[in-house]
Amino acid sequence: MIDDILLEAEEKMEKAIAVAREDFATLRTGRVNPAMFSKIVVDYYGAPTPLNQLASFHAADARMMLITPFDRNSINSVEKAIRDSDLGVNPATDGNVVRVVLPQLTEERRKEYIKVARHKAEEARVSIRNIRRQAKEALEKMKKDGEVGEDDVKRALTHLESVTHEQVEHVDEILKHKEEELLEV
């Protein structure tokens, strides 16, 4: 029973880290990557559809992404969705391909992205701590109900703390890597 609670908490923490990784991937750095476009939703025949389901991506160089919609009729919708997104780019189309050229990042913009990255990291840490709190409450309830012994709960809480600490350190490593990537000119 204790093992189930600890295992579930650990799995949820790993999922929180996976979400943080996805969030960090959407942050723009000096280089273009398809993950930047993963959160963009296109109005495709009246249905909101993720851009990565409607098109293929090709990085022409470090700052230009070529987006080829599978359905040529959706090219204007794709262009509009990219323009309206928070990427701050102005896409151009030739009828077949949408070209997205990312402007050079300024020092000020890089600092803004670092703030956003730190905020996303803090959200991940809070999520991990909430998972720890829920698992701790479940363990305390089991102890109170007399289902398990006090020593077993203490051992489980120690393990839970070490797992939580590991996961928070993992988030910090991801943040550090993203900050280095953002500061790279």
Tell me the layout of helices and strands.
Layout: H1 2-26, E1 41-44, E2 47-50, E3 55-61, E4 64-69, H2 75-84, E5 92-93, E6 98-101, H3 107-145, H4 150-183
Antiparallel strand pairs: 1-2, 3-4, 4-6, 5-6
Core attributes:
alpha+beta; 185 residues; 4 helices; 2 domains; 58% helix; Gyrase A, domain 2; two-stranded antiparallel sheet; Topoisomerase I, Chain A, domain 4; 4-stranded antiparallel sheet
H/I helix tally: 4
Spatial strand arrangement across the major sheet: 3-4-6-5
CATH level-3 fold name of the largest domain: Topoisomerase I, Chain A, domain 4
Strand content: 5-15%
| Rg on CA atoms, Å | 22 Å
Overall body shape: elongated
Can you tell me the residue ranges where pLDDT is under 50 for at least 5 consecutive residues?
none
Distance between the termini: 51 Å
* Total number of distinct structural domains: 2
User: How do the SSEs run, as a string of H and E?
Assistant: HEEEEHEEHH
How many runs of DSSP E, i.e. beta strands?
6
CATH architecture of the largest domain: Orthogonal Bundle
Arithmetic mean of pLDDT: 89
Task: Describe this protein's structure.
- The protein has two domains: 2-25 and 106-183, Topoisomerase I, Chain A, domain 4 (Orthogonal Bundle), CATH 1.10.132; 31-101, Gyrase A, domain 2, CATH 3.30.1360.
- Helices cover 58% and strands 15% of the residues.
- The protein has four helices and six strands; from the N terminus they run αββββαββαα.
- The protein has helices at 2-26, 75-84, 107-145, 150-183; strands spanning 41-44, 47-50, 55-61, 64-69, 92-93, 98-101.
- Helix 1 (2-26) packs antiparallel against helix 3 (107-145), helix 1 packs parallel to helix 4 (150-183) and helix 3 (107-145) runs antiparallel to helix 4 (150-183).
- The longest helix is centred in the last third of the chain and has 39 residues, at 107-145.
- It starts with a helix and ends with a helix.
- The model has no long low-confidence stretch (mean pLDDT 89).
